[in-house]
Amino acid sequence: MTFIFVALSILLLVLMIVWIKVEPFIAFLITSIIAGLFLGIPMETIATSIQDGIGDLMGALVIVITLGAMLGKIVADSGAAQRIALFLMNQFGERRVHWAIALTAFIVGIPLFFNVGFVLLVPLVFSVSYQYKIPAMAIGIPMLAALSVTHGLLPPHPGPVALVAQFNADMGTTLIYGFILAIPMVILAGPLLGKWPYFQTMKVKPLEVFSAKPKPVEELPGLLNSLFTALLPVFLLITLSLVKLNVAEESWGFGFMVFVGNPNVVMLVSLIWATFSLGVIKGVKITKIMEGYSGAVKDIALILLIIAGAGAYKEILVDSGVSSQIGTSLEVLPVNPLLLGWLIAAVIRVSVGSATVAALTAAGIIAPLVTSGQSDPELMVLAIGSGSLIFSHVNDGGFWLVKEYFNLSIKQTFLSWTLLETIVSMLGLAGVLIIDLFVS
User: Fold this and answer.
1) CA–CA separation, 376 vs 387, rounded Å?
2) Could you read off the pLDDT of 251-295 as tens digits, one per residue?
3) Is the torsion defined by CA of 214, 223, 147, 124 positive or negative?
4) 230: confidence class by pLDDT, cuts 50, 70, 90
5) Is this entry keyworded Transmembrane helix (predicted)?
6) Contact present, 61 and 307 (Cβ < 8 Å)
7) Which end of the chain, N or C, is surrounded by fewer C-beta atoms within 10 Å?
8) Are 240 and 223 in contact (CB under 8 A)?
9) What phi and psi values does residue 406 have, to the nearest 5 degrees?
């Protein structure tokens, strides 16, 4: 009966978000209260459980996600992303323009949220399409693949960061595994898929209203500065994680490495550097930079609320004992826990639409298998992240973003964006299972 209540609570969450169009944060709170009542949590402690769930999860995430949004904002506004894109286009040339677009989107997509990176790079795709007489979707697919993979698998994006916190995984190790997966995923689902004859013959005319004017070249920051600043968080996280492995725990240096390698500290250092290297040194007033940061925080407010709501629902499952029961029951199934995590996230993704909601909800259900040591926490982050990307359709904002910007029909969007997301998700699962063979 307990499992039925859990299934009904998930169904209720899906119905409120998809059919009634309730804001996900509110839907999570309502679902958490109802689930708590039916699962036997005393009424006087339900509110406390919800508060604790939100506090525990947000305490680990809010700094990284907020600073990440600010970093993405200054990378975009300063023209650093445009500088990186122009350099790569010049280096690759017309014959390998698909690879240039993919690499550009991959680099830009690491510090930028999907929507920001998409809006930033779409004008580049359209201009390249016009210049080289290439169908827009043929080079749009590599861009979308790279942005999607970085969004689903690599910190500092909200989903991966939240999963790292949920499973107490190591951020640096997750990044290393994520890069091992992401590169072949982007290649297969990007430039190679973009050469499929269907995309080469797809005739669409992107709407001009979405083609923002780029900055004059003379106003752009230097290439080295742009690359270093955009990738500084990734560089620091990976480098410090590797260095920490060779430092004895009893030495004074270990404590220092733990401190400076903390994702919150890394993001703060990176943002301070970006503020000066891309802003103050270029003559931008600090007040204008801070206004941009404020706008970036407003853009991610709803994302933070969704994460908070998912934390409340997770805590209800934990406090009711259901989470442990589910973990115990799943232990006897002849299914790899990584496959199970991917499958749960995939089902919720198709039902709800939001990759972040799917990832965090799946994490709350699968957590006992990770905490009991039955699965590698870093690989579980990537398995659930991959599952949360599958089959984007009409209940996903990304579906409509792609449709409207590229001026596609519903059918064309399914055969391009939805197909791409499904391929990315399946490749992610395959890659996680292969890595698991070597690290388990």
Assistant:
1) 16
2) 878 888 889 888 889 889 999 999 999 999 999 999 999 999 998
3) positive
4) confident
5) yes
6) yes
7) N
8) no
9) -90, 0
Alpha-carbon span 338 to 416, nearest angstrom: 27
- Reduced to 3 states (helix: H, G, I; strand: E, B; else coil), residue 246 is coil
Residue type at 376 in one-letter notation: D
User: Residue 210 has what pLDDT?
Assistant: 46
pLDDT given at position 19: 86
pLDDT at 331 over 60: no
Q: What is the CA radius of gyration of the chain?
A: 22
Task: Say how far residue 208 (Cα) sits from the centre of its chain.
Answer: 28
- CB burial string 396-433: b at 16+ within 10 A, e below: bebbebbbebbebeeebbbbbbbbbbbbbbbbbbebbe
Both tokens assigned to 136: 């827009």
Instruction: Using alpha carbons, select from 310, 369, 337 the residue that is nearest to residue 31.
Output: 310
**CA-CA distances (angstroms) from residue 13 to 47, 236, 243, 388?**
18, 38, 43, 16
- The helix-helix angle for 24-38 and 2-18 (nearest 10°) equals 160
Q: Are 285 and 275 contacting, i.e. CB atoms less than 8 angstroms apart? A: no
Amino acid at 138: A
Query: Which amino acid is located at 330 in the chain?
Result: L
What is the average pLDDT value for the chain, to the nearest integer?
Answer: 86
- The lowest-confidence range among 93-107, 207-221, 300-314, 348-362 is 207-221
Length of the chain: 440
> Cα separation of 271 and 83, whole Å?
19
Tokens of 116: 């920001």
**Tokens in use for 53?**
């769930």
- The dihedral through the CA atoms of 180, 182, 183, 188 has a sign that is positive
CA–CA gap between residue 169 and residue 165 (Å, rounded): 7
3-state secondary structure of 270: helix
| Residue 24, preceding peptide bond in cis (omega within 30° of 0) | no
Q: Which helix (H) or strand (E) holds 83?
A: helix 80-92
Angstrom CA distances, 257 to 81, 164, 263, stand at: 30, 19, 12
